[in-house]
Structure formats: C-alpha cells, structure tokens
Design goal:
Blueprint (H helix, E strand, L loop, with lengths): L20 H8 L3 E5 L2 E4 L1 H20 L3 E2 L5 E3 H7 L1 H4 L5 E4 L5 E4 L4 H11 L8 E10 L14 E11 L2 H21 L4 E5 L9 E8 L5 E6 L15 E3 L15 E16 L1 H5 L4 E2 L5 E2 L2 E8 H11 L1 E2 L2 E2 L10 E5 L5 H14 L5 E4 L5 H11 L3 E5 L1 H4 L3 E6 L5 E5 H9 L9
Parallel strand pairs: 3-7, 19-20, 19-21
Antiparallel strand pairs: 1-2, 4-6, 5-6, 7-8, 8-16, 9-10, 10-13, 11-12, 11-13, 13-16, 14-15, 17-18, 21-22, 22-23
Helix pairs in contact: 1-8, 2-6, 2-8, 9-12
The structure holds adenosine-5'-triphosphate and magnesium ion.
Length: 429
Amino acid sequence: MLFSNFFAPTSKDVPANAEIASHVLMLRSGMISQTASGIYCWLPLAVRVMEKIEKIICEEQDRIGAQKVYFTTVQPVSLWIESGRYDSYGKEMLRLKDRKDNDFLYSPTNEEQATDVFRKYVKSYRGLPVMFYQIHWKFRDEIRPRFGVMRGREFLMKDGYSFDIDFAGAKKTYDAVFRSYVRTFRRLGLTPIPVQADSGAMGGNMSHEFQILAATGESTLYYDKKLLTTSDDELMTIFAATDEKFDHKTCQVSEKDLMSSKGIEVGHIFYFGTKYSKSMGAFVLNKNGEKIYPEMGSYGIGVSRLVAAIIESSHDDRGIIWPESVAPFDLTLLNLHPRDDRCTIAAEKIYETFCGHQEVLYDNRDVSVGEKLADADLMGMPWQIIIGSSNIGDGLVELKNRKTKEIVKMSLENVIGKFMSKCYCPQNC
Ligand code: ATP
Ligand code: MG
C-alpha cells in the first residue's frame, strides 16, 4: 500500500475529550471517526486490525466446532416477547418501527434468534451438540458511552450460542470455549485473566469474564499471581475476582501472591441451562421419544473493544505498538528522501520484492523526515525499514524494531533476505 494513496488522516494534535491513550491514539492515527456519541466509523487502518482479530477468532472457533452464521441485526419484537426479555431489557435496547408500524429492535445480543434458528431445524437428539457464532454489529444504548470504542453504543461483537443434550455436555462445551478464549487472547498478544463472574441479567449459574490488565480498565481485579505464568488447563482453577466479589477475609491466596490491578473486560462466557430453550419451546426428542430442552450457553468477545484494549496494553509516548499477529501492516517502509533517486530505487526494489509476501505500508509521501518518522511510530507497525540519503550511498538501510526501539544498519540485500525468509530478528542471521 502506498501511503500517498492510503486513507489515514493522522494528526499531531491531542484531541479534546479523549481521556485514555487508546482513544487518543485511535483518533490521532486516523483509525476512527466519530458520528455520534458512542458511534464511530472505522477507517482503513482500524479495519485491517479488526479483520486480523476476526480471523484469529474464527480459526479458534472453527477448532472447537463452532459454526459461523449471520443473524439479523433487525429483529421482530415477538422473539423477545417469547423469551420474556422485551420488557426487562430496558433502555439499552434500540426500538424501531417499520413502515407498517410493526415493532422491531436492533439486536443487542442474540440468544433469542439463535434459539429460534435452532428450534426450526433441530428436532432430534442426533442434531446435538451444535454451536453457532457470528461476528456482527450490536447496538446498546449505553447510559454512558465513553473511552471511544471501548464502551460504544454501536460495537462489533463475536457472539456464540451452544446447545447440548445435558449438563455434562454443556459443561464440556463451556470448558472448550474457555480454553479457546484463552488461546484467542494469547494469540492477540494479550494476557487474559479469567474471572469467575455473576451471570447478571441472563440468569444461570456458571460464568467467567475474561479481563486483560490495563491501568485504565473499568474493573478492579484481585488475582493470584500464578495466573500470569500458568498453563491453559489450570487457569480455571486459579483465583481471580473483581472488587465487587472480592472478600479479604475469605480469600485463600497469601498476601505475597495476591495481586491487584485494573482490568478491561474483553470477553464473557455464560452457561444458563434451559432458560431460553424452555421459554421459547425449543426441544428435541431423545432416543425414547421424550422431549428434552437443550442446555445452552452464550459466549461473547468484544471485537471492537479489543482494538482499543490491545492499544491500552501496548503503546508508548510515541504511539501504538501493534503485536505482530494483528498489525495492520507487517512493516512501514520509509523513503526519507524520495527526491534522491538512490533512495527511491532502493525503496521500490524492497516494495516490489515484498509484494505478495509481506504487507507493506510504503511511505512515499513528499513530506518532512520528521513527519514520516512520527507517523511510523504513531501507527505502530512492528518493523520499520528506513531508507535515507546518508546511508544509501554505502548500500545500507536501517531496520527499526518499534517495540524495542532498536535500530540496526544492514545492507539492502540482507534486509530483503531477512523478511523474505520470515526471520525478523535484528541479528544478521
Ligand atoms: P460490560 O460489563 O462491559 O457492559 P457486558 O457484560 O454488558 O459488558 P456482554 O453482554 O457479556 O457484555 O458482551 C460481551 C462482550 O462485548 C463484553 O465482554 C465486552 O468485551 C463487549 N462489550 C459489551 N458492551 C460493550 C460496549 N458498549 N462497547 C464495546 N464493547 C462492549
Ligand atoms: Mg453491558
């Protein structure tokens, strides 16, 4: 991608009323544009990140047999009257009317719709277990939208819904989703802290929130420091609680192992039994022809919130530091002196060689060196290849690691070889 063609309205100015780093950096790097309170357009740089996050989520959902669908965002209220939630959901629900005066709503979550699809098609125990998921926009008329996309009104969520024949099956599914969430968040470069949670408005009796540590988080967490080093399988058994649930007197963790930190909730999983299958008459027949109401769970990941949460956990005073797995581009190629033919020939050689192998943002703009360097740090690609008049005469370019800030000089051939062989280490290996 040529920077001269790329729609990234970057800015040096710190926007007024952006309180946290991720909100400031998303605005400054031209990732989002606000339309109304809690409602944002997603611009190309942000979309590239979101798509990478989605791909990782989909791979990990596939791995546990969850199947991707798209439910509708606009839904008739009848489904929600059946489940009993139409009145109880309250003011967070955006209610709409069509031209014939029929009542609709814009989906804040999809237990009803998933149960409706299930009951239409699955009539026998042989159709179980089954798990649907989607990655789709939600609308919740949050009372206090804030921190940019962190708590928006329109936001992208992965939501999943499982149906099992009995509690044992539902527990197995719940555990599989739990492990898949841990893998998903780790692949996104995050350290997930699973916290046993209340199931809240959805009812039921098994629930975990997945938090990530960040000074600006809305939750306060207490957890056993073993959580930071333990294997995936043990995570569920190690202590973590939010401050509402935490009780110093009954806490078993020793003073020296007990950690406290702010956290951002990036995922939430629930088991709620037959709440929706019973209220909506979704049953299957078992071997003996008896009616069985499936045991259900629902599983959410805040996809748009994750973009901000990743920035909260990975930035410095110059800008964003993307983990490689979700970076919008693998590297920024900076041609500091585009009027110097030697620089442009070298930059174009790299750009053309990498095409199809590496995702490159090629800064070919005719702007100052300072602006290029600042934008590259602000936008946060993991690597920068910097080509300038002072080094190119010796056939050298600079390779900068955005995270460590380390810069090494190397020959054009070596830098090409390094990326083409997917070896990004700064040593000349
Ligand atoms: P919260 O306590 O933050 O309001 P929730 O319990 O209402 O979250 P769920 O209904 O479980 O959230 O939704 C699943 C995930 O969707 C959450 O873990 C969170 O990451 C994300 N999410 C929820 N509300 C918002 C929002 N207003 N803006 C952005 N992401 C959100
Ligand atoms: Mg909420």
